[in-house]
Design a protein that fits this description.
alpha/beta; Rossmann fold; 10 helices; 10 strands; 17% strand; globular
């Protein structure tokens, strides 16, 4: 198989062989072909029963053992791993980048100075499994753009939810186009200086896809932030909220109980960490609903 050239988010060019990558993925993961069924309207609206575990959605008694596919192990992604770790879950973590010294300063990520120059996925695995032995992190040191669609689908099908914490616009749209009809996907992102952020939820064939929500047709229509300075506390706030939303969805899928913490007809969570021109009312979570664009080739 001839080598393919690929442009990485940092601007560098590398070559890879898709077949070799697929073989490596198959060797490292025990693939399961059975798909996890998405949240149905009946399950979301037909059961209003309450219990102790219903009130405590972050309960390992219900969520423990669930598999999660987390794409991206940067600032938000690393704190997502930490936020989900107490639940005793299995996190399949995908990221090809390494820990830089700047990642270990000011609480920007969970990584430690001794882990500089190590792959982020292996660094995250060490920290999480050291501090939370009940949780397993399966590291996948690959660029999402280099993973064949068939393998990304196979991995998504065996997980309870997919969380996208990648800030590369091309990768985000590729994930949307491949996985929209396969699994629930949370797209989590920070805004300038981490003063705010958002969580976009796509539910197969029910909600608008990422393209419709952002009203974009290509990656060139999107503006993403790379290396944006921000408070570690603000980053953790957005990641923790994402973990709560993910846990609520997993709980609903496993129990059929109604999601009551937020309006399931709305699929955009806008998170404000402080008062500014974008959030004059101050900190909080504001929800909106995105509509599908007519004739969208992904979600219409």
């Amino acid at each position: 198989m001839n080598k393919h050239l690929q442009k990485l988010p940092n601007g560098q060019i590398r070559s890879y062989r898709p077949d070799s990558l697929m073989a490596a993925l198959r060797e490292e993961a025990a693939w399961v072909t059975a798909a996890v069924q998405p949240v149905s309207p009946a399950a979301a609206a037909g059961n209003t029963a309450h219990s102790d575990t219903h009130r405590n959605i972050l309960s390992s008694d219900i969520i423990g053992g669930s598999e999660i596919l987390l794409l991206g192990a940067g600032a938000v992604g690393s704190y997502m791993v930490r936020s989900l770790a107490p639940l005793g879950v299995i996190i399949n973590l995908v990221d090809f980048d390494i820990v830089d010294a700047k990642h270990t300063r000011d609480g920007r990520t969970i990584y430690e100075p001794a882990q500089v120059n190590k792959k982020k996925v292996f660094a995250a695995k060490y920290i999480v499994e050291r501090d939370f032995p009940q949780t397993t992190v399966n590291p996948y040191p690959y660029n999402v753009l280099a993973i064949p669609a068939t393998e990304l689908i196979r991995l998504a099908k065996k997980t309870a939810i997919v969380i996208n914490a990648i800030d590369d616009s091309t990768a985000m749209l590729q994930v949307n186009d491949i996985l929209y009809g396969i699994a629930e996907v949370l797209y989590i992102a920070l805004h300038a200086k981490a003063a705010s952020g958002h969580i976009i939820l796509t539910i197969p064939y029910m909600s608008a896809c990422l393209r419709c929500r952002l009203d974009v047709n290509s990656s060139s229509d999107m503006r993403t932030l790379h290396g944006e300075a921000g408070s570690g506390l603000d980053i953790r706030t957005v990641a923790n909220q994402g973990a709560v939303v993910a846990a609520e969805i997993i709980r609903a899928k496993k129990t059929g109980l109604l999601i009551e913490r937020w309006d399931i007809t709305k699929n955009i969570f806008y998170l404000a960490n402080k008062r500014d021109e974008l959030s004059p009312d101050g900190p909080g979570v504001h929800m909106e609903k995105a509509e599908k664009r007519p004739q969208c080739p992904i979600c219409w």
